[in-house]
């Protein structure tokens, strides 16, 4: 079988060199694609094989696969000429298939959907106050579903512009959590020999079902700038900065700016284990002083395949928020600390309407000097995603 595969790939190389005068039948091209896929699974670092697989994927109308493998090749381009040729090949695929679509559906069971305080009493300098529903956590199952559409356009410089539209719906037993949100974005993306740069301006609109004169409906205008530095074909360091202006229809005291910056590292640390680490710093500056804060978070996730069953992951996270001014009735600024632990599982053996569901669960504990915001919650998700 190995000799046959090598022979078929050699035929493809010869066919590509004489593309103007030679044509292969669809069955022959499909045979070559399968043979190339087999060889690539045995030699994933072979750039020639990966390019050939991208080529036959393009010839068999598997445009998403062709884009993916060309992007993988651009991550490890050895020189500017190679990168330019790959960008030209990518532009050819994009021109043939500029549209992409996606659907998502998540089932979200939670032991505390409202993130209700686990305390019944709020101690203040004026005396103890009874917390409404304090200590009475409400469990429930939420749903989130949505769709997206993207149109990608290559530029003469080798970069691409992607116009994106996304619409999502969240639905919970607690009516105040039910909302619909939509995002319009434009993403400029460009590969270099050392990494990939993205610049994304966007607008997001949130509309809640419950509107009783104190609506949480809002519009957010933002800009996200990211850079991923390629260390190897399997590892990278990425940084991102987001600036966002938040404008609430009725809650003017929440109007203001939000900023965040993050640094992440991901690496295939062995044949079986993949590691991802991330740290971020955020700042929110609404009009109400006691709601302004600076937050820091750190998280890590380790994943590994389990034979032919799927991929298992374990995650840990910690975070803190320090607010700017005194919380009403307390006489000191609010301070929060949080910790979480989670697990996830996804199996390619399980297919539902062409999608492999991902199961994840996370236990989170939030500590606060303001008893209103001290809670514990176990949140799970069964997520289905379909791209086409």
Explain what this protein looks like in three dimensions.
The protein is an alpha+beta fold and 388 residues long. It folds into two domains: 2-96, Serine Threonine Protein Phosphatase 5, Tetratricopeptide repeat (Alpha Horseshoe); 99-387, monomeric porin ompg (Porin). The chain is 19% helix and 51% strand. It contains five helices and 16 strands. The protein has helices spanning 2-17, 26-42, 47-59, 63-74, 80-96; strands spanning 99-110, 121-124, 127-130, 140-154, 160-171, 179-191, 195-208, 218-232, 235-248, 256-268, 274-286, 293-306, 310-326, 333-346, 358-368, 375-387. The protein has a 14-stranded antiparallel beta barrel with strand order 1-4-5-6-7-8-9-10-11-12-13-14-15-16. A hairpin with a 6-residue loop joins strand 11 (274-286) and strand 12 (293-306). Helix 1 (2-17) crosses helix 2 and helix 4 (63-74) runs antiparallel to helix 5. The longest helix has 17 residues, at 26-42. The radius of gyration is 25 Å and the shape is elongated.
Task: Give the helix/strand layout.
Layout: H1 2-17, H2 26-42, H3 47-59, H4 63-74, H5 80-96, E1 99-110, E2 121-124, E3 127-130, E4 140-154, E5 160-171, E6 179-191, E7 195-208, E8 218-232, E9 235-248, E10 256-268, E11 274-286, E12 293-306, E13 310-326, E14 333-346, E15 358-368, E16 375-387
Antiparallel strand pairs: 1-4, 1-16, 2-3, 4-5, 5-6, 6-7, 7-8, 8-9, 9-10, 10-11, 11-12, 12-13, 13-14, 14-15, 15-16
Helix pairs in contact: 1-2, 2-3, 3-4, 4-5
């Amino acid at each position: 079988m190995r000799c046959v595969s090598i022979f078929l790939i050699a035929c493809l190389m010869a066919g590509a060199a004489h593309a103007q005068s030679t044509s292969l039948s669809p069955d022959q091209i499909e045979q070559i694609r399968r043979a190339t896929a087999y060889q690539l699974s045995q030699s994933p670092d072979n750039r020639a094989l990966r390019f050939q697989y991208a080529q036959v994927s393009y010839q068999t109308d598997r445009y998403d696969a062709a884009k993916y493998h060309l992007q993988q090749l651009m991550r490890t381009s050895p020189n500017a000429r190679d990168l330019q040729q790959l960008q030209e090949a990518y532009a050819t695929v994009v021109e043939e298939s500029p549209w992409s679509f996606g659907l998502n559906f998540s089932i979200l069971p939670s032991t505390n959907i409202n993130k209700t305080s686990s305390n019944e009493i709020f101690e203040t300098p004026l005396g103890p106050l009874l917390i409404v529903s304090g200590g009475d956590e409400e469990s429930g199952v939420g749903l989130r579903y949505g769709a997206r559409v993207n149109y990608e356009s290559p530029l003469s410089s080798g970069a691409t512009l992607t116009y994106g539209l996304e619409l999502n719906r969240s639905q919970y037993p607690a009516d105040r959590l039910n909302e619909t949100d939509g995002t319009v974005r434009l993403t400029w993306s460009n590969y270099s020999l050392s990494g990939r740069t993205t610049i994304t301006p966007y607008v997001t609109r949130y509309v809640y079902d419950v509107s009783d004169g104190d609506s949480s409906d809002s519009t957010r205008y933002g800009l996200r700038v990211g850079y991923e530095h390629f260390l190897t074909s399997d590892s990278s360091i990425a940084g991102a900065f987001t600036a966002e202006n938040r404008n609430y229809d009725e809650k003017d005291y929440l109007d203001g700016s939000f900023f965040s910056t993050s640094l992440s590292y991901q690496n295939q640390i062995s044949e079986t284990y993949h590691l991802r680490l991330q740290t971020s710093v955020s700042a929110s500056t609404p009009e109400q002083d006691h709601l302004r804060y600076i937050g820091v978070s750190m998280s890590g996730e380790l994943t590994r395949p389990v034979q032919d069953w799927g991929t298992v992951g374990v995650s840990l996270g910690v975070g803190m928020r320090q607010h700017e001014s005194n919380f009403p009735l307390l006489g000191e600024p609010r301070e929060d600390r949080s910790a979480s632990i989670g697990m996830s599982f996804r199996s390619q053996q399980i297919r539902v309407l062409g999608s492999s569901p991902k199961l994840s669960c996370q236990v989170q504990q939030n500590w606060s000097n303001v008893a209103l915001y001290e809670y514990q919650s176990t949140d799970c998700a069964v997520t289905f995603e379909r791209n086409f």
